[in-house]
Design goal:
With about 190 residues, the chain is mostly beta strands. Helices cover about 0% and strands about 40% of the residues. It starts with 11 loop residues before the first strand and ends with a strand.
């Protein structure tokens, strides 16, 4: 039976057209791939017979959990044993924008404030941008963290600062930016 090579990789992915590969079987003439929505392959989503040892679906797979297996056909087109089942999840849905909490919008702050926001849940990472331009065209700094707060470095006095945050989920999907909050350092 072929060995699915994807099985050591991350089983959570944000690519709806993943490439699957497997080991070659000596004297194999073709390979037959099955993707189902259940481990028993009662709900087959895709089946494909090909001569190569890799395959990328032509159409995107919807978000969900799938099982895959492959088998080889010999020179007389007799099917061989199935590979072990490989289970994977496709998640292309980004998390929602986080909600900024502190410093409050339109507030005055000390020159080294702690930025805080609400968690989007799950194992998220957050990217924070701080800029003295409302359009975030040249951020003073950008940072990535798994926490829901971040203390800034010392900021210049007499300046309006704008900050925003976005989240990335475990599958690697970046969500949209939060609304921008402004604070003044007197």
């Amino acid at each position: 039976a072929p060995n699915i090579l994807n099985s050591t990789r991350n089983t959570l992915m944000n690519n709806p057209r993943p490439n699957f590969s497997w080991s070659s079987v000596r004297n194999a003439r073709a390979y037959e791939l099955f993707i189902g929505q259940d481990a028993g392959f009662m709900q087959i989503v895709l089946t494909q017979t090909i001569a190569t040892t890799d395959f990328t679906p032509l159409s995107p797979l919807p978000d969900g959990t799938y099982s895959m297996r492959v088998r080889a056909y010999d020179a007389d087109l007799n099917p061989g044993k199935f590979s072990k089942t490989y289970t994977f999840t496709i998640d292309t849905t980004p998390p929602p924008p986080p909600t900024p909490l502190s410093p409050p919008n339109q507030s005055s702050m000390l020159n080294r404030p702690t930025l805080q926001w609400l968690s989007v849940g799950g194992e998220a990472q957050y990217q924070i941008e701080l800029d003295n331009n409302a359009d975030f065209s040249s951020p003073e700094f950008t940072e990535i963290t798994s926490k829901t707060s971040l203390r800034t470095r010392s900021l210049a006095r007499g300046v309006n600062y704008y900050w925003r945050v976005r989240a990335k989920d475990k599958a690697g999907n970046w969500g949209g930016w939060s609304v921008g909050f402004m604070f003044f350092v007197p």
